[in-house]
Amino acid sequence: MTFKPQHSLPADDTLALPRRSFLHGAGALTLSAAAVAVLAGVDRAAAGSNATASDVTILNTALGAELEAIAAYQVGAESGLLKKPVLDLAVQFQGHHKEHADLLADTVRKLGGTAAEAKTAYAFPTDQLKSQADVLRFAAGLEKGAVSAYLGAVPLFQNRDLAKAAASILGDEAMHWAVLRNALGENPVPGAFVS
Amino acid sequence: MIPAPSREAPATGRPAGARAGGSLLHERAAAFAASLLIVLLTAPTGGQADDSAVARGKAAYARCLACHAVDYDRVGPRHCGIRGRKAGGVKEYPYSDAMADSGLTWTRETLDRFLAAPLKTVPGTLMTYDGVKNPKTRADLVAYLLSLPPC
Fold first, then answer.
1. Which residues of chain A are within 8 Å of residue B75 when distances are taken between CB atoms?
2. Distance (Å, rounded) from C-alpha B89 to C-alpha B72?
3. Do A144 and B62 touch (CB under 8 A)?
4. According to a count of CB atoms within 10 Å of the terminal CB, is the N or C end of chain A lower?
5. Among residues A152, A110, A20, which one has the least CA distance to residue A74?
6. According to the 3-state scheme, what is the secondary structure of B59-118?
7. What is the ipTM of this complex?
8. What pTM, to 2 d.p., does this model score?
9. CB distance B100 to B88 below 8 Å
10. Residue in chain A lying closest to B128 (CA)
């Protein structure tokens, strides 16, 4: 099969997203069935729990990365380099990372841990972000890294419900990565496996 | 273990002073080979990696980008200047006690061991990652990390 990359996001209704304030958060969220299932799993993990201190450490490391991703998308949105519909897409992805962070933080607390907090400042290579493509490439790198990080975390969980929740987030990060690659005109799914 | 090569010419049954020209050449070749072997065996562990390994390692480094960057600290510490640095050695980065007290110094061997199984190598590390299980990918990644310039 010949692959023909799509070199730009279509400016049609398929990518039209609800207007949201990037600065003030996504507001009330309607939970999808998938989100409810993930939440049920982590509640079960917290209630029944064979989750360990090690599991809490894994969750907190992931939480730290999610909080940084939220900040990174904020930088991208405020750069003035992203144009619609890419800007809307970035807002949507940031919203996903906020949902991931909320879930991870809640789970850490339910397991008796102290949730990691966002840093007061993050270092990003803003001097290297000169165009929309630069921002997309930077975001794609973070999303690919997130896929790998969750892939490396899933087998470490003692509690299988937590592993499942992490795998669910992994799938979302992989979709972000693919869409960002597509927006860059690259093969969105460059291989049959991720590493 | 590789046996040290003998500097002696092969036994020919002739007295040392009665060697033919061919034997002399053979002896010089053996001496050259011995010198080469000494150079190879005494090269530092973090010695020059081939460029292709570094390039492959740079590509493999994509998997680290959720938490690490070369030049600045993120969820994980920066990687510039990692070669020969003591574990826990990036100033102002909040390491786990486990990492700070690990006693490791980052060399080809310790990086390989740590990246293969971070939590087994340094129990309690905050790098909650199963590890880079493919030895070749790991070797490439280590080659890239060791190639990074000082911060």
1. 61, 64-65, 68
2. 14
3. yes
4. N
5. A20
6. HHHHHHCCCCCCCCCCCCCCCCCCCCCECCCCCCCCCCHHHHCCCCECCHHHHHHHHHCH
7. 0.77
8. 0.75
9. yes
10. A58
